[in-house]
Design brief:
Lipocalin; disordered N terminus; 9-stranded mixed sheet; about 350 residues; mainly beta; 25 strands
């Protein structure tokens, strides 16, 4: 299975136009297009600008649960899924979406690319794919702030934090080598960035993948909603690592997350459930909130960032990074990503 969903502030509007809607992003390098008539295609490359490893094409239908159900009709190249494989996803057309790889693994975010930025950016970021070796609560930089100054073409990472909420100081300086169509090469080819005029950014380096949205104060009432999304739990294996998810906050201080057992009919589990307790809003800086997530396996910290009215869509998006509940080693990543219904 793969799961595809809407993600990140980005430019664009409406559904697929006469020529379709395209997205790009890391993992290693994916390009996806939704075409008129409910068609889609996905290309995967090992490197940005490299040759195509495989191409998947097919059709999709929209389910009552809000997910898209995609069916693979053709596959070319090597390493792709089989014909007839099905996928579930979520989309805000023309903004962005995320891709769960065809095998097990972390969520891959993608954005609707536009021109390179023409003004300064101030963003919050979280990690959705961590390749480092540090404890997630002591030394692993898993969220923080990102700044881009247009006049000097200078990106920087002013703040970094681990999930013990320890400040790790500023990140190392970054250098932009080239930028074309919103795709940036940084630090002599050591990484890539995918930027949008709508205020979103993705960064992929040897250390992992970063998802970024505009840094701004939010009203805590903006999270009191039901969100449809995706869960990644590194403590699980195979297809159980990444699953469709429903998140509901009944107040500004507490919520629940439940895995879907029947995506097509919108049925969620009554046993595979997480309780989310919010301890503070707009902390450690505007746009973030701190939580503890608890399942039958145990409890661990989780930090979320809020993107209200994402891309002018009227939707609120949540991007969360935590330690897998019950993981006593503090090394297993846990991501929840949701879009308000």
């Amino acid at each position: 299975m793969l799961f595809i969903g809407a993600l990140i502030n980005s430019c664009g509007s409406g559904g697929a136009g006469s020529s379709g809607t395209s997205y790009g992003g890391p993992g290693s390098a994916y390009t996806a297009t939704f075409t008129p008539g409910n068609g889609f295609s996905i290309e995967k490359r090992t490197t940005v600008g490299g040759s195509v490893d495989f191409t998947v094409a097919g059709t999709y239908v929209t389910l009552s649960s809000g997910f898209l159900k995609l069916t693979v009709d053709s596959v070319t190249g090597s390493g792709g899924p089989t014909v007839g494989a099905q996928a579930y996803g979520l989309q805000i057309p023309g903004f962005a979406f995320l891709l769960k790889p065809f095998d097990s693994g972390e969520i891959i975010p993608m954005v609707a690319l536009n021109d390179c930025p023409t003004s300064d950016l101030s963003l919050n970021w979280i990690v959705t794919d961590y390749d480092g070796g540090s404890s997630l609560i002591s030394g692993a930089d898993l969220f923080g702030t990102f700044s881009y100054t247009y006049a000097t073409n200078s990106p920087s990472i002013p703040t970094r934090y681990d999930l013990g909420y320890n400040s790790l100081g500023a990140g190392t300086s970054l250098t932009i080598d080239t930028c074309s169509g919103g795709v940036v090469t940084i630090d002599g080819g050591a990484g890539n960035m995918w930027l949008t005029q709508g205020g979103g950014a993705l960064v992929r380096t040897a250390g992992g993948t970063i998802v970024a949205t505009k840094s701004a104060y939010y009203n805590p009432a903006n999270i009191v909603k039901t969100f449809t999304g995706i869960l990644f739990d590194q403590s699980q294996s195979g297809a159980n690592q990444t699953q469709p998810l429903s998140i509901t906050f009944n107040s500004t201080s507490s919520g629940t997350g439940a895995v879907y057992t029947d995506v097509e009919n919108g049925v969620v589990s009554t046993t595979d459930v997480a309780t989310i307790s919010v301890s503070s809003h707009n902390s450690p800086s505007n746009g973030f909130f701190k939580t503890t997530v608890t399942t039958a396996a145990g409890s661990n910290p989780m930090l979320c960032q809020v993107s209200a009215n994402a891309g002018g869509s009227g939707k609120t998006m949540l991007f969360c990074v935590g330690v897998s509940p019950g993981d006593g080693t503090n090394t297993k990543l846990y991501n929840m990503i949701g879009i308000s219904q």
